[in-house]
Amino acid sequence: GPLDLRMNPTVGLSAADWLATVSAEELTRVIQSYGEDGDPILAARIAEAIVARVKEQPPLRRTQQLAEVVARVKRDSSANLFQQPARLTFQAIRSHLNSEFQQLDIVLDAAMEKLHFGGRFVIICFKRAEVEAVRRFVRLHEECPPGILETWPREKVLELYPLLKRDSGAVSEGPPYSSELDSEAEGYKEISGSMPASSSKASSVTSAKSSPATPQGQPMLHQDWCAVEVCPPLRATAEETRANTRSR
């Protein structure tokens, strides 16, 4: 089909138009960040091959054309009849064009605001980078344990627990915020979904109310909740992965 890959064809550049102008360096970054994240050299080879193809012939306009370019670079992948060699390259370009990871951050923020205190929701991720993005979100909104507040240097605590940072202009001498978790949950809400039979992963995150204490009269944080990962990511079983591979 047409080489577009946009979720909304009326917004932004199509994949074909973007590839016609992108540099090899930028394309390498996109492929490595959102696709071939474990092999930077392979990402660079794929990017160079695509840019060379665009320069030597008319711009790529069909998905099959792009798939053939990537397949020539990834010849070893052709041994797996169920694995499309260009899958991760298409995934990377699609993620970039649709700002998928930026959209994920927006969804996580909005979901936490909608949850009741003590509520939890489950996130289904299809890529390792998505799991890392969810965990990064949790780390940015995670409450600092009291023991660390009392023993670690103030600068280090603020660096490793960004939730405790104060508004600009409100910095004063003294210890960082201490925070107590409200033990009385005002509600519970869970968003669940079926786990796809693939190599997907799920990360469960719960929202809880925090009460920043300000013993020296420091201003309170505007955000009155924190997040915590309540279970590690779940991986599909070998049987589920085989079933998903056969269905492809």
Oligomer designation = single chain
β content, as a range? 5-15%
Helix fraction bin:
40-55%
Described by strand count, sense and barrel closure, the largest sheet is: 5 strands, mixed
Radius of gyration computed on alpha carbons: 23 Å
| Class inferred from helices and paired strands | alpha+beta
Query: What's the shape?
Result: elongated
Query: What separation lies between the terminal Cα atoms?
Result: 18 Å
The topology string of helices and strands comes to HHHHHHEHHHEEEEH
pLDDT below 50 for ≥5 consecutive residues: which ranges?
166-200, 206-221
Look at the structure and give the mean pLDDT: 75
How many DSSP-defined strands?
A: 5
What's the tally of helices? 10
Describe this protein's structure.
The protein is an alpha+beta fold. The chain contains 10 helices and 5 strands; from the N terminus they run ααααααβαααββββα. The protein has helices spanning 15-19, 24-34, 40-56, 63-73, 87-97, 100-114, 128-140, 146-151, 154-160, 238-247; strands spanning 120-125, 178-181, 190-191, 201-213, 225-235. Strands 1, 2, 3, 4 and 5 form a 5-stranded mixed sheet that branches. The protein is elongated, with a radius of gyration of 23 Å. The protein starts with 14 loop residues before the first helix and ends with a helix.
